[in-house]
Amino acid sequence: MTTLTxxxxxxxxxxxGSTGRPASRARAHADGMAVASFILGxxxxxxxxxxxxxxxxxxxxxALARGTTRRGRALLGLALGATDLLLLALLVTTDGTVxxxxxx
Length: 104
Prior knowledge:
single chain
């Protein structure tokens, strides 16, 4: 007895890598990560630079690795995240504190 099998089109032809998600959805997530990286890096220069700086670095790196269309925003997020950590180091060495100090 012979059984015939029908060749079905590959389900992964319209997906992104091994994640199984459509490429447009993965790209949208990467774009969101790039924007979040920029916003967190920007906020980190003012408050919570110990937490927001590394978050901006991680999200910016992930966005670039996943092929975001907002490459400039992801790079700005990386730069601002690094600036947050440098600012933290500067504050700790000069004032001995991890936050802005205005006045005496």
